[in-house]
Sequence to fold (516 residues):
Amino acid sequence: MNKIHSNGIVILDFGSQYTQLIARRVREQNVFSEILPPETSLETIISRNPAGLILSGGPSSIFGDEAPEFDESILNAEIPILGICYGLQLLAHHHGGSVESTGQGEYGFATISVDDDTKLFSKIPKESQVWMSHMDRVSRIPDGWNVLAHSSNGIVAAMANHDQTRVATQFHPEVAHTKEGQSILRNFLFNIATCAPTWTAGNFIDEQVDLIRKQVGDGKVLCGVSGGVDSTVVAALLHKAIGSQSTAVLIDHGLLRKNEARDCVRALKSGLGVNINMFDESDIFLSKLKGVTDPEKKRKIIGNQFIYSFDRISAELGEMKFLAQGTLYPDVVESGVSKGKTAHMIKSHHNVGGLPDDMTFELVEPLRELFKDEVRNVGRALGLPESLIERHPFPGPGLAVRIMGDITKERIQILQEADQVYMDILHEDGLYNEIWQAFAVLIPVKTVGVMGDQRTYESLLGIRAVTSTDGMTADWYRMPADTLSKISNRIVNSVRGINRVVYDITSKPPGTIEWE
Fold:
């Protein structure tokens, strides 16, 4: 275990929708966190040398047949433990308390009263708002344990053993709706688990430079770049670690934003001194996508063709053994490539779920366990310009997943022009940096319009803008009405082929950020 991973937190995932959020909240305190499946053995956990363990919530009842299996010896180990929701019930049941289901749980906002303001609730107000989401409840705490807090309807909201090396909350401190949640987690991390705040961008860079050098040796690396912050940070990390052994390659698959390939090459070559080459592979990508409308098929076709193109380019450049790419933690999670059995595939990402089985490259993925905001912090520590760091996320499949239905050169051009207008106005109105991600979607629906006293029958365009910190959850951005009006008017009047614009006001969940 590396130094910056030691004295961190292991999170056992019992299937909570908030498990990734727990990991993020811990990392926000500069403490490394790692999510492991519930069946992980105590021996494996100890090998990580964690300072503490968090048991996540989950949809199961501890009495149900569907309850996840886990190594019960973990609950007796000499490691500080925080149980959350289902985790509280596990601790109560294991140590001789009583858990019952009344058929009436608590869901949503609740008010708790703190009964013991030491350690876990140190400097927490006597009463505060929390977020509950449970059916079962603790009816009797274990002998030798204390109630730390109770909710307004008398339910045990938090409990602990006598020395608070075992603490638990029925509410979810990791969600923003729990007003003092960050303070409560911080109390566990530093008052109880005595974690080391060594998870910093600078330490991460030093660690990854060392790991890249060890993995690559004297081999050569082909680094796939797209102009986005993820691949740019990877290219900069490789440049720092192995210099000329790495060659950045931008493949223009014909589905980039307007002028994006040219701008990307210029920024990386002139701005960062990265060794980069561009290859126009648009004809082969578009030929393979012809007539394909299913978004999963699009992603897999693109993922496969990227590898085949990289294979051929690698041979031209001198047989490169390694392929580096900007895979992030949310990519892995959404593609169902989980460390346990609880992840459900939401959609495959071209760089994770879309890779061919016969791939000959060995992957180098230094950002695989980072969230987007952590990547941006690493970029700043590497000295990248803010214009690259704050660039909105752009999917690897590009406009292929923003052109719903059939992909043609004509439809690509329409979307490129509309998207450019949209981005220009966000910059003009000073809104671009307030938004996590904004983009346009060409919808395979035509609507009737009137322009110049004549009937039109042209395409419908959807525009989307969301706020987020990591892409795991997102809320739709409250776009000013004047800006929306400007966007719609300029697109309809300047982009041939579009006569109607609609704004997407769906959050994630229930929707995803991208439409496909």
